[in-house]
Design a protein that fits this description.
By secondary structure, this protein is α/β, with parallel strands linked by helices. It has one domain: Rossmann fold (3-Layer(aba) Sandwich). Helices cover 40% and strands 23% of the residues. It is built from seven helices and nine strands. The protein has a nine-stranded mixed β-sheet, with helices on both faces. The termini are far apart.
Amino acid sequence: MTQLFWRLIFDSSVLRLWSQQVHAVSAKMAGMKGRWIVLQHVEWEGPGIIAREAKSRGLEVEIRRLDLEDEIPEADHVDGLVVMGGPFGAYEEGLYPFLAKECRLLAAAVRRGSPVLGVCLGAQLLAKALGCKVFPGHGAEVGFGSIALTQAGQQDPLFAGIGNVLPAFHWHGDTFTLPEGAVLLASSQMYTQQAFRFGSWVYGFQFHVEPDADTWAAWRNHLPKGLVENSETKQLEIEEIGKRIIAKFFDLAMTSAEVERK
């Protein structure tokens, strides 16, 4: 009876120690993978392929809907940041107070060395957070088109080996000046600032390559009639390019996290 008693005590102690070790390893793995925040401004401008590629790498992705008054987190609670597009100007803080908070978060995330990706309005907010002007352009650029990589873009980790001219979808009327210290990666016929990199893993894309099938469907009611209908081939071309570019972004971001830990 005494031997059985001590055996049960020993077994329970071993089980408790094993459980603590499992939780410790799980916590360590969660910290390695990091917490990614996606700031979404309107229902139809979701992260599409971005969220899919992040989740496929085991990253924790949390979408904050600013149109639903979700809270913008502090930078020390964010390991990676994605800022999506929206139908307003980066300079309209008076109408949309959360824009100023986003810029503060973007600036803080960059200072912390966190990976950042800004898309469309998100790229404009990133440029503004880095001290640049955002202003109405000389015309709306809307629809299927392309971007041409600069020489630096052709050598960039995200774009190298994909091609010099890439299909993209445009949907903006505003533009911005290039942040000081940033590298221009791509331009279009209408607008020079289409993609830039600041530092090693902070990127701004004025164009769209993140739409998936759900995104295209959601956009249909917000774009000029007939613009995306019967365009499956063009959509698939952009999705294919988008998967490659966005996959490279997350691979780079995860590599950067490994470097930071070392």
